[in-house]
Each structure stands twice: as structure tokens, then as C-alpha cells.
Amino acid sequence: MTDFKIGSAEARFADLIWAHEPIASGQLAKLGAAEFSWKKTTSFTVLKRLCDRGLFQNENGTVTSLVSRQEFYARHGEQVVAGGFGGSLPAFVAAFGSRNKLSDAEIEELEKIIESMRE
């Protein structure tokens, strides 16, 4: 199973890949230098970690995703809820809501999501 737990620097680099894929690995290293002031070796090290986790592949010098950005963040969220809230989405929402006020628009959007899940 793919490991959806990655550090913040890896997540930012993954977002860069998703935004530009397919991308030549050399061009990706240049983007890593421009965006994060990384050396080429740092970009390739982080890319290798992300490939080892099954998120991306580097075939013939071209980097593409094996998991979409949406799928990654959905699965990552599931792991957060499972690990920190005993798998309880209501407990997660309650904890989030206790520290962050939701706007009326956000509440309406959540209500629509819940309603669509009932259908």
C-alpha cells in the first residue's frame, strides 16, 4: 500500500510535480532550484523518496504521477482521521470546528456534500 504520510517539503515538491507533469527530471530539478533554492541533488533525492512511496515514477527521465493529487490528499486525510480521531469523521470536524469558525458558505458546502452522500 502506498504511504501517504510525507513531510511538508515533500508535499510542496509533489504539488510542483502535479502542477507540471509530465515533466523531464532535469526540468523538475531546475524548478526545485527556482522554487525552493534546492540543489539538483536535493530535488533528485526527494523525487526518489516520492517514487519509492509509489506516488510518482521517473521513466526514461520523465516524471509522471501514479497517484493523482486529489487521491493523495483524500487518502492522506483518511489516515489523519484514522490515526488521530479513531476513524471518527464527526470527531475530526468537531475538533476542527472548535478552533476554526466555519463560514456560512463552508457550512452550506458541507451540507451539500453530506446530502449527496445520502443519495
Provide the residue-averaged pLDDT.
91
The radius of gyration over CA amounts to: 18 Å
Number of strands: 3
Tell me what portion of residues adopts beta-strand conformation: 5-15%
Overview of the structural elements:
By secondary structure, this protein is mainly alpha-helical. Helices cover 67% and strands 8% of the residues. The chain is built from 6 helices and 3 strands; from the N terminus they run H-E-H-H-E-E-H-H-H. The protein has helices at 8-20, 25-36, 40-52, 69-84, 89-99, 104-118, and strands at 23-24, 56-59, 62-65. A 3-stranded antiparallel beta sheet has the order 1-3-2. A hairpin with a 2-residue loop joins strand 2 and strand 3 (62-65). Helix 2 (25-36) crosses helix 3. It is elongated. The mean pLDDT is 91.
Helix and strand arrangement:
Blueprint: H1 8-20, E1 23-24, H2 25-36, H3 40-52, E2 56-59, E3 62-65, H4 69-84, H5 89-99, H6 104-118
Helix pairs in contact: 2-3
Task: Put the structure in a nutshell.
By secondary structure, the chain is mainly alpha-helical.
